[in-house]
Write a structure and sequence with these properties.
Layout: H1 30-34, H2 45-56, E1 65-67, H3 68-88, H4 98-110, H5 112-118, H6 124-131, H7 135-149, E2 156-161, E3 169-174, H8 191-210, H9 215-235, E4 250-253, H10 254-260, H11 266-273, E5 280-283, H12 286-298, H13 301-316, H14 322-337, H15 345-368, H16 374-394, H17 401-413, E6 415-419, H18 437-453, E7 475-477, E8 482-486, H19 502-520, H20 541-559, E9 562-564, E10 567-568, H21 575-592, H22 596-599, H23 609-620, E11 623-625, H24 627-636, H25 642-650, H26 654-660
Parallel strand pairs: 3-5, 6-8
Antiparallel strand pairs: 1-11, 2-3, 4-5, 7-8, 9-10
Length: 679
């Protein structure tokens, strides 16, 4: 999945999609203008393709990276800002209307004087509730409350599709409760990890001082919270071990859940969440819950109170006064990701408004900003990729006919949701006004939690979207066997006044979006689900063995990449995304070969179709990242850093070698015996 950034404001109008590409485009062509002629394609194709743009556009001090996603997100932010500001200006908007809620939420976020005057006053009642807890019964109710309004203390919890019965919604409980991005941050011994833990302890101390603790009490609370979280981390599985859906699926009865954790009253938790008559739950990591149950006794209640206060404030700090916000920013943004300064307030509040009220903003965005015909163009590209995928499966030399038949059945069953939903969620019960930014955020969070919980016991709504049309991202849902591509993915920065040529559309949208997401249905995780979205082995034993032999090759390939300092990419953790990148670019290329541009060998800006396609793929991941951000990503993210999402897949493609004259001995060369070809 793509990430976000923000720097150059790019104008985007409704005429973009349907103008024909100009015959030359030499002056404005993004691909040609980004090439760094001081770097050989054979040495580092990522910098060859993008280096000139990186040199001319340094990373803004308020961002962890800069690049294509930055430009596109800035376009979207400018549009959403217009929606927010125009809504906030309507003091007489009808109560309960989209514009009233958007405007009031944005208004309270922009009112910095009120925010700074109130400080943590709006959380006084929450603190009193936490301080008033009596025993573990009170703990269960408070943990549910914080899950609903601010974060995920102690464990992860949610309602979603049962992996084995995709038509049914189930309750899931999994390991969680950590404030650092991953368990590895608590135990790694390199200098960067040691520095992060030291600064995290100082951050905890500062946060308790902000909450009103004196120096000694703040220091004690910080140390005990660090001990508690370290214990939670030690009980957690490594992130790569949580990727196997079979090994992380344990359906048990509610009675068994209670017996597993006798010190935690799940009835109180479920009742507080509005869940009645719970019969079964799906536990991801049973040993984690057993450990947490022990911690409820081994750590005094005061330690849990301090931990929950921190979880509450950390989860809501973006909506608080500058002092609280900046303390959280200094650790989570500066220390962890190298960001030098906060974004301008308007940009922060736009993003928070969009994050909380994205469904409402999406309705305005579709009506006022999304070009007509977006769905049709996206479906055209998606169907082309899907057709290529079917042809590739039919001609695989390593898969039996029996498994091919089932793979094609799954492929044909993939639902493609593009552009925007046909129906919107009903947010009429969400209460938003101009009294408090943090209260508005808590109300929005509570609405989202209750909406999720309300699904329990109801049939799965397969028409539902989990992203808004203004979200520059995409996803594959294995339980629905569907891909979802929001409308704003049609934007290609650098082509604001003409339709980008097919080489770019089929590499950026076809390869890194549609091809990538479809391949997730056939990666090491998605391949365990059938055409109906159920965990169900549709492979013959021999085909399965051949498939996993190929996927191990891509694990070894990425294990060898050093991302920053001495940190290697974790091939096991990033396996699924790397498989999706490789499948995506291969499918995008095969689909592009069927276009008129490729067949006519059309030259644009001095580049032939093959050159434009591979440069277009590098454009899709044109992201220059801070070393701190890369280090954080390598430890905690399933996605490889942008550079390796380019050079990794491309070095497995002989067509890429032929296009840029890459030969044995070049840094971009991989021996044929190590090149990965799966789908």
């Amino acid at each position: 999945m793509k990430l976000f950034v923000a720097a150059v404001n790019v104008l985007f109008g409704t005429s973009i999609l349907f103008a024909q590409p100009g015959p030359q485009m030499k002056e404005s062509d993004a691909l040609a203008s980004h090439i760094d002629s001081t770097v050989r394609a054979q040495d580092d194709f990522f910098l060859f393709a993008n280096g000139k743009w990186f040199k001319e556009n340094p990373i803004p001090p308020s961002e962890p990276f800069n690049g294509l996603w930055q430009m596109i997100q800035d376009t979207i932010n400018a549009q959403v800002r217009n929606v927010c500001e125009s809504s906030a200006a309507q003091n007489n908007a009808e109560k309960g209307s989209n514009k009233q809620k958007i405007g009031d939420f944005f208004f309270t976020g922009m009112d910095s004087m009120t925010l700074n005057r109130r400080g943590l006053a709006d959380l006084k009642g929450e603190f009193e509730t936490i301080d008033g807890m009596k025993g573990t019964d009170g703990l269960a109710k408070v943990i549910e409350h914080i899950h609903a309004i601010a974060g995920s203390p102690a464990f992860g919890f949610g309602v979603g599709q049962d992996d084995r019965i995709s038509s049914k919604n189930a309750i899931f409980i999994w390991q969680g409760g950590l404030s650092l991005p991953d368990r590895s941050f608590y135990f790694d011994t390199d200098s960067r990890a040691l520095m992060i833990r030291q600064k995290f302890l100082a951050h905890l101390n500062n946060m308790f001082r902000i909450m009103g603790y004196d120096s000694a009490a703040a220091g004690h609370a910080a140390g005990r919270v660090m001990e508690l979280e370290t214990a939670l981390a030690k009980a957690s599985r490594k992130r790569e071990e949580t990727r196997d859906p079979l090994k992380n699926y344990h359906k048990i009865s509610f009675k068994q859940l209670e017996e597993t954790t006798p010190n935690f009253d799940w009835t109180i938790f479920m009742n507080a969440a509005g869940l009645k008559n719970v019969d079964t739950v799906i536990v991801g990591q049973p040993e984690f819950l057993t450990a947490v149950d022990g911690f409820l006794r081994s750590f005094p209640l005061d330690d849990w109170k301090n931990y929950l206060k921190y979880q509450l404030v950390r989860g809501l700090s973006r909506y608080m006064d500058d002092n609280t916000y900046l303390e959280t920013f200094n650790f989570y943004s500066t220390t962890l990701r190298g960001i030098e300064e906060p974004k301008p307030r308007w940009k922060r509040v736009v993003e928070e408004t969009d994050g909380s009220l994205g469904e409402l903003i999406g309705q305005v965005y579709v009506a006022e900003y999304l070009p007509k015909g977006t769905k049709e163009k996206l479906l055209e590209i998606g169907n082309a990729i899907k057709a290529v995928y079917a042809d590739r499966i039919k001609h695989l030399d390593w898969m039996s006919d029996a498994t091919k038949e089932k793979a094609l059945k799954k492929l044909n069953g993939i639902i493609m949701k593009v552009g925007y939903p046909d129906k919107w969620k009903d947010l009429s019960s969400m209460q938003i006004d101009r009294s408090s930014f943090v209260r508005n955020a808590m109300n929005a969070n509570r609405w989202g939690f209750e909406y999720m919980v309300s699904k329990y016991g109801k049939p799965v709504d397969r028409t539902e979207w989990d992203m808004e049309p203004q979200t520059y991202n995409a996803y594959y849902n294995s339980s629905n066997n569907e891909i979802v591509v929001p409308g704003c993915n049609i934007i290609v920065s650098g082509y604001e006044h003409v339709l980008a040529d097919d080489a770019i559309l089929y590499s950026v949208i076809g390869g890194s979006t549609f091809g990538h997401e479809i391949t997730h249905g056939f990666d090491d995780q998605g391949s365990k689900y059938d055409e109906f979205g159920n965990l169900n082995n549709w492979w013959t034993p021999d085909d399965s063995e051949k498939f996993y032999a190929k996927t191990r090759m891509i694990v070894r390939q990425f294990d060898n990449y050093v991302a920053v300092d001495s940190l290697h990419i974790n091939g096991d953790l990033t396996e699924g995304e790397n498989i999706a990148d490789l499948g995506g670019i291969m499918m995008g290329y095969e689909a592009f070969k069927k276009t008129a541009q490729y067949k006519s060998h059309q030259m644009i800006a001095g580049l032939n179709p093959d050159e434009r396609f591979f440069l277009g793929y590098a454009l899709a991941w044109m992201v220059n990242e801070r070393p701190e951000a890369v280090a954080n990503q390598v430890r905690s993210d399933e996605h490889s850093p942008a550079k390796f999402r380019v050079i990794g897949p491309l070095t497995n493609m002989p067509e890429f070698y032929a296009t840029f004259g890459i030969k044995e001995g070049d840094p971009m060369w991989r021996p044929d015996s190590t090149r990965v070809k799966i789908w």
